[in-house]
Every structure is written in structure tokens, then in C-alpha cells.
Amino acid sequence: MAAYESLNYMNIDSLLTEEELLVRQSVRNFVTERVEPLLMKANREEKFPMELIPAFGELGLLGSTIKGYGCPGLGHVAYGLVMQELERGDSGIRSFCSVQGSLVMYPIYTYGSEKQKEKYLPKLATGQLIGCFGLTEPDAGSNPGSMKTKAEKVPGGYKLNGNKMWITNGCVADIAVVWAKLDGKVRGFIVEKDTPGFTTTTMKGKFSLRVSTTSELHFQDCVVPEENILPGVESLRGPLSCLTQARYGIAWGVIGAANACYHTALHYAKARTIFEGRPLAANQLAQAKLVKMVQEITKAQLLVLQMGRIKEKGTLHPHQVSLGKMNNCRMALDVAREARDMLGGNGIIDEYPVIRHMMNLETVNTYEGTEDIHRLVIGEHVTGIAAFR
Ligand code: TGC
Ligand code: FAD
């Protein structure tokens, strides 16, 4: 297979700065040299390659846009390119870095006390500490406002009771950022792994995102100290604002998965001979499939670049992020399914990355707000009428 190149059909690379291109190249090399060789085994064994974590820290992939506390303070386009390159490897690898940066470090940085920031952020940036984000519950997925997990004020702290489900990195995390209702208001709590009353279980049997650890979190009379509540937010806006950061990264990331599938399908179609020794790529139907991929990936690239530039100016709104997340996840899933088809029988074995990406993208289209939820967010924005309920 030819060395990986990302699609640059509209010369979008010319809109990137030297620094952004350098960041992209360094993460691309890392994924080719260090990540890709581990993926087949990790995916078969349903196991995250923990040995990569120190390198994530050294390369500045954890909390990349945060300024200070040992973080590199990258621009938002550079960060998007990081996510894209990681997800070219595997959505589970990108997920690890998204959760750590957008869902654990971002809330501590944005809503935490100075003491919390100093205690946790530098170690989360190096990967010495791993974090997870507990919002979803068995009966509260798309509608986290209906969460049942409760916090109660007790002398010296807060007592948590409830269960969280589908939590990326839950079982391997040193700290969990957990959202619970205190006196009817959603509050964030930092729960350290050995806190009495806090237990986790691994969710097994996933056909998707197998390279990522997914867990349940259980809180039974779990008392967290007073200083572990996030003081800066008292509403569902707290967790939802974290989701906006993560969804931005996903909108970029999935282009990497789509690119990997397109690249594989293109080179496969040129090498594979079909009827009377003609390459598959010489067939008009095959070309139509490849052209559709080029068309959709290119549009997605333009969408995220504009999202990134307006995020850098501070004017990117959550409903715009919903459009990017919804469009690009669907695009990537469609590209992956078409690429899988073009590989014929070879499309279903893990010698090629396509089936792994295709299965992963089913999760990515669902988590961080399902495609329907983003459609409803945009619907509410354009009509002024909320149609969730
Ligand atoms: P609603 O009344 O609309 O809003 C409540 C408060 O939140 C504010 N807000 C947002 N702020 C920032 N970003 C957003 N995207 C926001 N959406 C709403 C809003 O302004 C309000 O603020 P305030 O100050 O007035 O209190 O809330 P709602 O209960 O009607 O819910 C709206 C809805 C359905 C869109 C929301 O619940 C939603 O987004 N649901 C989807 C849930 C979801 O995405 N869960 C993801 C869980 S985490 C995950 O999947 C991690 S995967 C990790 C990996 O990468 O591996
Ligand atoms: P449901 O909300 O039950 O949705 C089922 C179906 O109903 C979907 O098709 C949905 O679009 C549709 N639907 C829902 N509401 C409406 C409506 N109003 N109108 C029309 N249709 C609707 N969560 C975390 O908190 N932290 C994590 O780290 C995390 N990691 C995850 C990792 C994986 C691998 C997965 C699969 C999920 C993860 N999640 C995490 C949870 C994820 O965010 C939820 O699965 C997602 O938000 C959907 O919730 P649900 O699964 O309960 O589906």
C-alpha cells in the first residue's frame, strides 16, 4: 500500500500555516510509526494500547489548546489537525485524547478552582493521570438533564449515589469528572479512583471502538471532599459546554478515518484486477464511488476549517458545532461503508483498516449527541422551536 497522504483536492493545505502543517506532520509520523503497528492486536483483544500514553503527553496531544499548566496552547485549527491524524489511526485513539482534553481538562480549566487546576492539569497533560467523564446514565443518554445521580451535602463534602454508563476510560481512569444533581442543579465533581463507594465495571462485547475502554461507574454513598466540587458552574451548561469542545474535535477527527478509508479504497481499486484483467479503478461505477468520497471529504474539510477559524476568533456557536459533527460523522460513515464495499471480501478482514473504521464510526455517529439530536439542535436554531419533547 502506498504511503498515506491526506486528500488535498482543493489545495486546502495552502490555507494552513507553517506551524499547523508541522503539527500535522509530526502527529502523522507518530501515528504511522507508533500507533498503526499496534492497532490490529489492540482491536482483536479489545484493549487500549496503554504504552502510547506517555508519548501522547510528550507530543502535547492532551489538553492541546489549554494555555499554561504544562499544556502547549495550540490554536484550534492545529488541534483539529491533531484529532484528524489520530483518528486516521483509530477513533478509539482519538477518543482517548478527546476525553482527556475536552471532557476532563477543559471542565477543570474552565470551572475548577486554582487549587484543582494546579493539582490535576499538569499531570493530566503528561498522561501521568488519566481522566474520564461521567454524564450518561442507563436511562439518560440523549437527555442528560434527566439524570438520576444525586449529590447530597454532608459534613466535609458531598455524598454521591447513582450509576453512569458508557464511560470511555472509566476503568483505567485515576479521576472521574462526574455530573450529578445537588439540590436539583447539575454540578461537577472530581472523584479520585480509590474513593470509598466508587467502583467501575468494564463493558465487554462491543463490535465498535474496541480499541477504547468503555465502563460503567457506580457510586454508593461515595463521599468526595468539599474541595472536589467544580465551583464555576451550576447547570447542565457545564457538561454541555464540554461536549461542544469534544464535538468540535470529532468533526475534524472523522475526516481522518474517512481519508484512511478513501486512501485504502483508491489504492486497492488501482491494484485489484477484475473482469479480463482490468483494474477495478478503470470501471466507471468504481470511479463514481471514489469521486463521491473525494467530493464529500473535500466539503467536510472546508467545513471544519471555517469552524476552526471562527473558533479562533471566539465566535463559533454550539449549533454550528452540531452541524459539523452531524455532517462529518455521517460523511465518514458513508465513505467507510462505500470503501468496505469496494474491497469486496477483503473489506471484512482486519488486514485492511476499513472495516475497523466503519465499525468505529457507528459509535462516533452516536456518542457526543446522536445524529438525530444534532439535527434537532439545528432544527431548533433555524425554527426557534425545540422539538426534543
Ligand atoms: P437546554 O435547556 O437546551 O440547555 C441547558 C443549558 O445548557 C446550555 N447549552 C449549551 N452550552 C454549551 N454547549 C452546548 N452544546 C449547549 N447546549 C445547551 C443552554 O444554554 C442552557 O444554559 P443555561 O445557562 O441557561 O442553564 O438543555 P436540554 O436539557 O433541553 O438539552 C438539550 C440537548 C438535547 C441538545 C442536550 O441535552 C444534548 O446535547 N444531548 C445529547 C447528549 C450528549 O451528547 N451526550 C454525550 C455524552 S459524553 C460522550 O458521549 C463522550 S464520548 C467520548 C469519546 O470521545 O470517547
Ligand atoms: P438514546 O438516547 O436512548 O437514543 C436512542 C435513539 O433514539 C437514537 O437513535 C437517538 O437519536 C433517538 N432519539 C433520542 N432522543 C430523540 C428525540 N428527542 N427525537 C427523536 N429521536 C430521538 N457518555 C459519557 O457520558 N461519557 C463517555 O465517555 C461516553 N463514551 C461513550 C463511548 C461509547 C463507545 C459509546 C457507545 C457511548 C459513549 N457515551 C459516553 C454515551 C453516549 O453519549 C450516548 O450513548 C449517546 O448520547 C446516546 O444515548 P443513548 O445511548 O442512551 O441513546
How is this structure best described in words?
By secondary structure, this protein is of the alpha+beta class. The protein folds into three domains: 12-126, Orthogonal Bundle (Butyryl-Coa Dehydrogenase, subunit A, domain 1); 131-228, Beta Barrel (Butyryl-CoA Dehydrogenase, subunit A, domain 2), CATH 2.40.110; 237-383, Butyryl-CoA Dehydrogenase, subunit A, domain 3 (Up-down Bundle). The protein contains ten helices and eleven strands. The strands form three sheets. Strands 3, 4, 5, 6, 7, 8 and 9 form a seven-stranded mixed sheet that branches. Strands 1-2 form a two-stranded antiparallel ribbon. The longest helix has 35 residues, at 237-271. The protein is globular, with a radius of gyration of 21 Å. It binds 3-thiaglutaryl-CoA (TGC) and flavin-adenine dinucleotide. Residues 95, 98-99, 133, 135-136, 142-145, 168, 235-237, 240-241, 243-244, 246, 318, 367-369, 373, 377, 388 line the site of 3-thiaglutaryl-CoA.
Please give a handful of descriptors for the protein shown.
single chain; 389 residues; alpha+beta; Butyryl-Coa Dehydrogenase, subunit A, domain 1; Butyryl-CoA Dehydrogenase, subunit A, domain 2; Butyryl-CoA Dehydrogenase, subunit A, domain 3; 7-stranded mixed beta sheet; two-stranded antiparallel ribbon; 10 helices; 11 strands; 51% helix; 16% strand; globular; binds 3-thiaglutaryl-CoA; binds flavin-adenine dinucleotide
